[in-house]
């Protein structure tokens, strides 16, 4: 690989992933497993349902008894969910049955209570015929004993938690989460707890990066701010290299005060690249040691966040065992033309709307300066203009990489009524 020049976003992503493996696994309680990734295959521990059960509140009966309706049947038993039926349903008989209760011997169908009328205490009139099997959930219909219900690599969502509880998995084996450290560098930076100084720049990157990691379920450690001094920087970096992943903000480009790359190299980090043909985010660096990976992220706040999305996020997701490493993209039409300098992949902050035809429409959030953090805060996604392009016209289709917060909308988006 050409280390210094003309590395594309795709090549840089592949380079990062070559140096990243899925972590070991650990056992956690089901209650604490949301968002984790299963490191084991899960099998059903019994047939579900364990016998034929009713899908409705109603009456279990013999469908042949309803050859002509209305028909009057004698109620011989009440069966609730959790009961074992005691009696066999014979011709002219039925049992009152609740949803989830076992279907009694002799009965081959259930009719819902809405299609019946009580005649007296012990007799019910059935209004319409039913087919054999009506409203019965069959033994093993949902899952078979021993069947693989969840494979390793499954992300634990609320639905997956429901399945795990169904098979009585109180503890699950999941992939570990990486230990991540975040270091800001720069003489100009002022910490959140320091007094306001008009000459300084607030250290926003540490917190934005922290939140990007938290959004992935990782609790990073903030190492603070290192001044642009090789000695001090080396001390901080040594601490940071004890983590699985070290994110260094600022100091990665080629200014005389940018000491990050040489200091990392002096500490034994093998640097794989230090710039990528992209905008924002050109001066992004990546290196590794035997036990950790290091990202040198650009100091400009938007560049820092965009580089996290492209390079750090897939690496963290691989470590956590996710098979799907990248943010979802969708095709959207441009609301206006965009022009770019060819040769670099450009990420444009956009909001998404729907046009009259229901297609997504992407509109720039305004200034695309790499310091315009407010426009990152407003963005639904990053519109990707490929490096081969010099721009696109209004109405053209483009890929938009969705950011956090895009899975909700202000209207339900469908008709609730038939
Ligand atoms: P650098 O990559 O170190 O040359 O930084 C480029 C610019 O990014 C600096 O001039 C700062 O304005 C800004 N910057 C650097 N670090 C941070 C940070 N931690 N938080 C916010 N802005 C930063
Ligand atoms: Mg700097």
CATH superfamily of the largest domain, by name, is MoaB/Mog-like domain
Radius of gyration: 31 Å
* SS summary, helix count: 7
CATH class group of the largest domain: Alpha Beta
Cofactors, ions, other ligands: adenosine monophosphate, magnesium ion
Question: Total number of β-strand segments?
Answer: 28
Range of strand content: 25-35%
Q: Uncertain regions: pLDDT < 50 for 5+ in a row? A: none
Write down the CATH topology of the largest domain. Molybdenum Cofactor Biosythetic Enzyme, Chain A
Q: Which CATH architecture of the largest domain would you pick?
A: 3-Layer(aba) Sandwich
Strand order of the largest sheet: 7-4-6-5-9-8
3D structure, described in words:
- With 418 residues, the protein is an alpha/beta fold.
- It folds into four domains: 9-23 and 177-319, Molybdenum Cofactor Biosythetic Enzyme, Chain A (3-Layer(aba) Sandwich); 26-48 and 142-175, Molybdopterin biosynthesis moea protein, domain 2, CATH 3.90.105.10; 53-137, Molybdopterin biosynthesis moea protein, domain 3 (Molybdopterin biosynthesis moeA protein, domain 3); 326-409, Beta Barrel (Beta-clip), CATH 2.40.340.
- Helix content is 17%, strand content 29%.
- It contains seven helices and 28 strands.
- It has helices at residues 9-18, 158-166, 205-214, 230-240, 260-266, 301-319, 373-378; strands spanning 25-29, 42-43, 53-54, 58-61, 71-79, 93-97, 109-112, 116-120, 123-126, 136-137, 148-150, 171-175, 180-185, 189-190, 201-202, 221-226, 245-249, 270-273, 278-279, 285-288, 293-297, 329-334, 338-339, 345-354, 360-364, 381-385, 391-392, 397-402.
- The strands form eight sheets. The chain has a six-stranded mixed sheet, with no helix packed on it.
- A hairpin with a 4-residue loop joins strand 20 (285-288) and strand 21.
- Helix 1 (9-18) packs across helix 6 and helix 3 runs parallel beside helix 6 (301-319).
- The chain is elongated, with a radius of gyration of 31 Å.
- The mean pLDDT is 95.
- Bound molecules: adenosine monophosphate (AMP) and magnesium ion.
- The site of adenosine monophosphate has 18 residues, from helix 3.
């Amino acid at each position: 690989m050409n280390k210094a020049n003309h590395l594309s976003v795709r090549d840089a992503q592949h380079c990062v992933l070559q140096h990243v493996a899925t972590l070991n696994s650990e056992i956690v309680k089901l209650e604490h497993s949301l968002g984790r990734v299963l490191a084991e295959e899960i099998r059903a521990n019994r047939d579900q349902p364990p016998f034929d059960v009713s899908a409705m509140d109603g009456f279990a009966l013999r469908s042949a008894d309803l050859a002509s309706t209305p028909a009057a049947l004698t109620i011989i038993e009440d069966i609730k969910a959790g009961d074992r039926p005691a009696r066999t349903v014979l011709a002219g008989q039925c049992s009152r049955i609740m949803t989830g209760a076992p279907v009694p011997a002799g009965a081959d169908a259930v009719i819902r209570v809405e299609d019946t009328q009580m005649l007296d205490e012990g007799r019910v009139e059935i209004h319409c015929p039913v087919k054999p099997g009506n409203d019965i959930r069959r033994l093993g219909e949902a899952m078979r004993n021993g069947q693989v219900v969840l494979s390793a690599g499954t992300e634990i969502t609320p639905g997956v938690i429901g399945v795990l509880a169904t098979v009585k998995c109180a503890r699950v084996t999941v992939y570990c989460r990486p230990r991540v450290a975040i270091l800001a560098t720069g003489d100009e930076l002022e910490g959140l707890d320091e007094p306001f100084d008009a000459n300084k720049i607030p250290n926003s990157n540490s917190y934005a990066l922290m939140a990007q990691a938290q959004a992935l379920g990782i609790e990073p450690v903030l190492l603070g701010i290192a001044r642009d001094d090789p000695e001090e920087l080396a001390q901080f970096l040594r601490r940071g290299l004890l983590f699985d992943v070290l994110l260094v903000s600022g100091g990665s480009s080629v200014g005389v005060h940018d000491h990050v790359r040489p200091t990392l190299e002096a500490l034994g980090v093998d640097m794989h690249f230090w710039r990528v043909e992209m905008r924002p985010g050109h001066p992004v660096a990546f290196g590794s040691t035997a036990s950790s990976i290091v990202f040198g992220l650009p100091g400009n706040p938007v560049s820092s966040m965009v580089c996290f999305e492209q390079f750090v996020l897939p690496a963290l997701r691989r470590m956590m065992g996710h098979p799907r490493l990248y943010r979802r993209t969708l095709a959207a039409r441009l609301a206006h033309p965009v022009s770019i300098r060819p040769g670099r992949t450009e990420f444009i902050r956009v909001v998404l709307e729907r046009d009259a035809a229901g297609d997504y429409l992407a509109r720039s959030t305004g200034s695309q300066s790499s310091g315009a953090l407010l426009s990152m805060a407003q963005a639904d996604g990053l519109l990707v203009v490929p490096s081969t392009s010099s721009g696109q016209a209004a109405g053209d289709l483009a890929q938009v990489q969705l950011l956090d917060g895009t899975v909700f909308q202000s209207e339900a988006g469908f008709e609730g009524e038939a």
